[in-house]
Specification:
Length: 257
């Protein structure tokens, strides 16, 4: 009687739950590869083998991820592991990706500025001091699109920011830039035109918080003050909470706590 006939699908499925491929091969006196071929042919996953192999990985650390437990096998027979990231998030990672280094974190690493790859250290950095190149180009391109007069330089707007002591000139909230392009949403500084009917010309620009700029829109400062005073009266000052807003979290992705 051939081994193939003895090892039917149903028998193999049962064996695989409690034995590794090697143990099955020893029991039926055939090679490891032969059993592996049969499993592939019958499309049977071997959870016990992967579970046993995974045991050695538990507690090990790969970059940001620490293996906690065995999760299971997906439809492609990849071994999945439960891992904890250094940032505190729990995530499920394919074993192969974890071991060969394709997956290094829960995803937080992609958004974390790497000291050797950000700001002036980046080989493609085009900015001036803290102001990234794309930020200034963005203003320039926007002005060209709207056909606004433009005669400011990046050095000039930096000097204004220094004069304002890195604070929003209307709300006094600290403002700044993120040097990492991927985190550009976290930038809070925004360049405002004092008189919206004029372009980006020297003497007509000031730094504000991006939220303040959104509120101000194309209003003149007098008009803004008019609306704020009326809003403040209507909204009842007692109801406005005095909680200190964490300004660095403004504009961040909602799913990141
Ligand atoms: Zn993480």
């Amino acid at each position: 009687m051939l081994i193939k006939d003895r090892l039917t699908i149903s028998i193999l499925q049962k064996l695989v739950e409690t034995k590794t491929i090697q143990e099955i091969a020893d029991e039926y006196k055939c090679s490891y590869i032969y059993i592996q071929k049969l499993l592939k042919q019958y499309k049977i996953a071997c959870p016990y083998s992967s579970k046993k192999n995974t045991k050695t990985l538990i507690g090990q650390k790969y970059h940001y991820l620490t293996v906690i437990s065995y999760k299971g096998i997906n439809h492609r027979h990849d071994v999945l592991l439960n891992c904890r990231c250094d940032c505190g998030q729990f995530t499920e990672v394919k074993r192969t990706n974890l071991v060969n280094g394709n997956t290094k974190s829960c995803g937080c690493l992609a958004y974390e500025p790497r000291p050797n790859q950000t700001g002036e250290n980046h080989y493609r950095w085009t900015g001036y001091k803290d102001i990234p190149g794309y930020f200034f180009t963005g203003i320039l391109k926007g002005a060209q699109k709207r056909r606004l007069e433009f005669n400011i330089t990046v050095e000039y707007i930096w000097s204004i920011l220094e004069e304002q002591d890195f604070k929003c000139c209307l709300s006094s909230v600290p403002i700044g830039f993120t040097k990492n392009f991927r985190c550009r949403r976290d930038t809070t500084a925004s360049l405002d035109r004092i008189d919206s009917f004029q372009g980006y010309i020297k003497g007509n620009v000031q730094w504000v918080h991006k939220r303040v700029n959104l509120i101000k829109h194309n209003m003149h400062q007098d008009e803004l003050e008019y609306w704020i005073s009326h809003l403040y009266e209507t909204l009842q000052p007692s109801k406005i909470s005095n909680k200190i807003y964490h300004t660095h979290l403004w504009g961040r992705r909602a799913n990141k706590s």
